[in-house]
Amino acid sequence: MTTTTPATLTRSTEQLRRRAHDALRTCGVDTTTLPGADRIDVRTPLTGGTVATLAAIGPGEVEAAIEQAHQAFLAWRSVPAPVRGQLVKRLGELLSEHKEHLADLIGVEVGKIASEALGEVQEMIDICDYAVGLSRQLEGRTMPSERPGHRLMETWHPLGVVAVISAFNFPAAVWAWNTAVALVCGDTVVWKPSEKTPLVALASAALLQRAARELHAPEHLNTVVVTDATGAAPLIDSPLVPLVSATGSERLGAQIAPRIAARFGRAILELGGNNAAVVTPSADLDLAVRGIVFAAAGTAGQRCTTLRRLIVHESVTDEVVTRVAAAYRGLQVGDPFEAGTLVGPLFGAAAHQAVQDALTEAVAAGGTLVAGGERVDVGHDDAYYVRPALVTMPAQADVVQRETFGPVLYVLTYRELDDAIALHNGVPQGLSSAIFTQDQREAEVFLSAEGSDCGIVNVNIGTSGAEIGGAFGGEKTTGGGRESGSDAWRAYMRRATNTVNYSRELPLAQGVSFA
Ligand code: NAD
């Protein structure tokens, strides 16, 4: 692909390093203690340069962190849930106070544009609000007993240590979704952030630690472990970890799910997506194009919910392709801290290579590259910026079935809605989906059991940008997990069914007699 030079990135790695360390210090992280023997270099995708060097820990230290978290759980589970909620309330206040510092760290580490980085922190604040309310609503049911003088009910109890494993592209919000809920449920957390983006993790954890100190909560309610997949092994295998909530690639899920199942642990798996939108003849195309461009090009195509496939009715395909391509040409690609930039960098050389390989494969399969795909030169050899790519495909192809974690949008054409739904569901993943239509019948079919097979099914909005109030997650190789709102909290607790006999008799269920 050719390279274009719209602008040189004036920001240096040294400036970004200072910005990150200032934000860390303000959030209470002592940056003088960061370097260590077994080192992890944290690089910024903006320039490709190193902005911090951290000590990495091994499996022994992770095991010790689990043991401490277990001890903390033994105390925390007895604290009344509404009192636990007060800790999360204070965390939310501190996150609000430090919103810009945390967003700065996300900007430096991940390369999100300012508005999206702030949005990620807002999501953390929102889930804290939600969890505070939840702390008074961890309710069980009572059911009528078939026996006189008996009461049947269920109670929900804390589970234990929750391992949170998070991906680079949501380096803080995923932790908050899990941790705000886990803490009010009475659990404790050991968090393994992506080793590529540990700085905002350290800052977020420092804020929680400050809240815990202020409220005299037990120590070790939440511990960050900066380590790689090898170091993380105890999080997957330890019997002291009843729940593993893991966010990442389908490969991650395939590696850890059998190990967790082998010890009868629980898993919340939030894995890769290959999300699609159907555009029907009745769609409001002004609205659809705006929704498509944000969902496909936003976050440089590096969201799990990024729109990767567009399934367009043949009568509007030309117009949709022309309008999306025109919008793509107008997107400002470059420095994510610069006002007006809508597409920041890809996360390093491997991500860029994956995008180029996918485009080559798509063209070899008969696809046509309509717009984008070229690298944008910002004056740093180790920084990878690309223009979002739009590719029309003559038919389903292997490359369309995979998640390529970058801004590549494939366009497929359909004639009948049933065919569109078959194309839509004909991939291994099942995270997020959308239909753009003004025909209520089409919308309802897409939402029905015969429609989209995803965990998130939208009408007239794109595939990305979920709110915390709903349960978030997907089906098939996306892993089946649900976290955040609705009744996702139940996964963080154990249910006990209780039968209480307040009579003077001992009738047996089902009329059984034993005398
Ligand atoms: P990744 O799978 O490379 O890594 C994710 C995390 O898992 C990291 O912390 C990594 O160190 C850890 N990890 C990897 N192998 C492990 C193992 N064997 N044992 C323990 N830990 C292990 O993913 P990534 O490149 O950081 O993130 C991008 C991927 O994450 C994409 O596929 C994206 O769709 C997915 N994602 C999914 C969601 C969702 O909610 N469904 C959200 C964000 C990202």
Automatic annotation (TrEMBL):
Residues the record marks as active site: 270
EC number, UniProt record: 1.2.1.3
Protein name from the UniProt record: aldehyde dehydrogenase (NAD(+))
Gene3D superfamilies: Aldehyde Dehydrogenase, Chain A, domain 1, Aldehyde Dehydrogenase, Chain A, domain 2
InterPro entries recorded: Ald_DH/histidinol_DH, Ald_DH_C, Ald_DH_CS_GLU, Ald_DH_N, Aldehyde_DH_dom, ALDH7A1-like
PANTHER family assigned: ALPHA-AMINOADIPIC SEMIALDEHYDE DEHYDROGENASE
Family, similarity comment: Belongs to the aldehyde dehydrogenase family.
Keyword Flavoprotein applies: no
Enzyme class: oxidoreductase
Pfam families on file: Aldedh
Keywords: NAD, Oxidoreductase
Assembly: Homotetramer.
Domain called Aldehyde dehydrogenase: residue spans: 38-495
